[in-house]
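In keeping with the milestone schedule agreed at the kick-off meeting, the structural modelling team has produced records for the first pair of proteins. Each record is given below as a sequence line and a structure-token line. The laboratory manager (R.T.) confirmed that both were archived under the project's standard naming scheme.
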Amino acid sequence: MCGRYSLTSAAEAVRQAFGYPERPNLEPRANIAPTQEVAAVRLGGGGTRHFARLRWGLIPAWAKDVSGAARTINARAESVAEKPSFRAAFAHRRCLIPADGFYEWKTEDGLKQPYRIAAPDGAVFAFAGLWERWDNAAEKRAPVESCTIVTTEANERLRAIHPRMPVILDAADYETWLDPQTAAAEALALLRPCPAERLTAYRVSRRVNTVANEDLSLIEPLVGEEPAAQARLL
């Protein structure tokens, strides 16, 4: 699964990586959590990519309320095309969710030890995402646009930490994933573990376990431990 991630890269670096025209105020975030507002990129008219802010935890258009969103922060690649909560979004509303790291937990010495997984050079990348618009006119609420992160089985490096991981798309596949005209089989073929060499994993402070902690020290390796050295242990 993916239940916590980071986006600490400079706003302009993110804009350049995803090619949207907007220049949003994008503050570095080290501990992004479910139900929070997150950055996303989706396709607009004329095939132009656009920046959006979406609530993390997908709310299907048919939902009666938003209470189930905490259970839909992830969509399994194996069932995303059939599961009622996700199949319409998979068919018509795919998006990219920018990140530069994510967290998984492993039990060590009886305690849950968080690891941060990131590109060796710290570059921003994209999770495969889906988005929806929920409009409860009966209660006269403003529409809520929400999203979920697609997950798949972990690659050989991350399997020692957790059996699953978010789908990290190749930049060359962004257009294919975003395009609603892409055939379902072609989109599904993109939902695979990324190569192990694209990622490194290292232990971080257990302070990341608390959502209220947001400072950038959370992405640093534990004192005396180097990311590359830790990755070789996995």
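The second protein of the pair:
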Amino acid sequence: MLTIGSSETVSNCEGSSRREFLRVGALGLGGFCLTDLLALKARAGEDKIYDFLRDKSVVMLNLQGGPTHVETFDPKMTAPSEYRAMFGEVKTSIPGVTFGSHFPMLGKLAHKMSVVRSFRHGNGSHGTASALVAAGGNSTGACMGSLYSRVAGLTNGVTGLPNNCLVVPATAGDKYKDLRAVPERVTSVGNLPKSLAPFDPSKGGSILNDMELRLPEGRFENRRGLLSRIDELKRGADSTLASADSLHQKAFDVILGGVTDSFDLSKENPRTLERYDTGAYKIPKGLAKKKKNGKSIPGFSPIALGKQMLMARRLCEAGCGFVTVTSTGWDMHGNAFGIDDGMPILGPAVDKAASAFIEDCSARGLSEKILLVITGEFGRTPKINSKGGRDHWGNLCTLAFAGGGLNMGQVVGKSDKLVGEPAEDLVTTNMLLGTVMNVLFDPAQVRLLSSIPDEVKKAVVDSKPIPQLV
């Protein structure tokens, strides 16, 4: 157990005590502490506890509101004008395959992607559809990140970082705190313990009993305060740790080092920061005044998305197993945003941020170790409405993959002539779950675990991946 406290006192019904700044205790794997796990590795060379883990991570880019499947990855230019992609198509690196016109950078990387044109679940309601996709329909109702941490442990056994993280716009810094996010729709723990909820750095959340990050009120909002506070702790701990054994020193170093480095984007090469930067994709000032419900439109700005994706990559590098990134504004009916004025802003931002992520992972040799999933709660109606938008549609939904050691460079399934229904190779939420779980775990080994509930084990072991990808 590692506990670091601040000098601030807090009064409550149990009296006064010092406020804890950082506590890292048991790591969620049979009660082992980090020093215990390090000792096991030192003695055995290879910790067999992790045989069921594949040493991979998943980043789920959730386009909140229901991204249009037509204007993203299935433009269907052979359909009548009121059905096909409003802005046309762009060629990709896969012969004969096109994406929506706002995705030229992803188009050039299509050979590193697999897009699904037959993903369907039939639910057109924001809340329940969001939860359904995030959970992959598993019976616990828990999002896939929480399911992962229930099996793998709340924190990474080597770095001490949370295994399940949430990156909303506010995570990228104070200036993004007013941007919208609806994380509760995609972060439910279902009937699993609340401690399995994703760690949300923007709120200074906690991982109960395993990793707690607590700061005096207002300090976490100041990112520089967080980083400088950790630096102070490192300097002040030198004399205290001088008498500690090497394993405890290492535990301290990896935990604080991981926390600091993961959230400090200043360590990145300026060219990398520029490649990810989506700050130019701002909503025009006059747009909100022209629209019903226009007050909500400025909050949809995707200016933080690039930094969110960069932070997701950094978290995966530091040992986080599952990262959920949210980007709002995709509810394109036309009363606020429509396809006509929403896609030219949100589409290019996703194109830049996601393509930067794919290229970055490739350059760092991480393509096999990190799976990117792009999806949302549902698709949009095949026919464009009178307001220049598309309405809710659960019969065909956006879904794309990159990396993770899966088979890339292909289109899975096919939509019908009016891009409204799967015509070939139906893909279900259970198949999405199976694909993700098979990237993260060895199901045969998970089947042998006695430390997890049968319902959780069943969700991992019995879900079947998309066959064309594995």
